[in-house]
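Narrative of accomplishments. A recurring question from our advisory board has been how the design workflow behaves on a single, concrete structure rather than in aggregate. To address it, we present the structure tokens for one chain from the evaluation set, followed by the sequence designed for it. No filtering or post-editing was applied between the two.
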């Protein structure tokens, strides 16, 4: 199966763990900034990030993979089934004003 840009997205994400709630902050320098409620302990923030993105995008958690930055606040996230443009449109429509 061929992975085209129409069905696969890679996003640079910067998370702020242990926030009061999960929320999309916005884009800054081509990096999506997200607050995550879970603490950065034993992969909890990573799991919460995948759960949150899955919920917002309406796709299964299996379609989302953190491919870089498991122990960093700066991550590279791979999303199957959606283009980068549609991912950003959906996520940025959830930005807190």
């Amino acid at each position: 199966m061929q992975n085209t840009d129409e069905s696969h997205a890679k996003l640079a994400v910067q998370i702020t763990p242990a926030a009061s709630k999960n929320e999309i902050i916005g884009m800054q320098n081509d990096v999506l900034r997200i607050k995550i409620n879970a603490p950065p302990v034993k992969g909890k923030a990573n799991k919460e990030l995948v759960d949150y993105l899955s919920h917002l995008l309406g796709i299964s958690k299996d379609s989302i993979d953190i491919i870089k930055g498991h122990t960093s606040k700066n991550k590279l996230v791979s999303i199957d089934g959606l283009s980068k443009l549609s991912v950003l449109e959906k996520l940025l429509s959830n930005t807190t004003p």
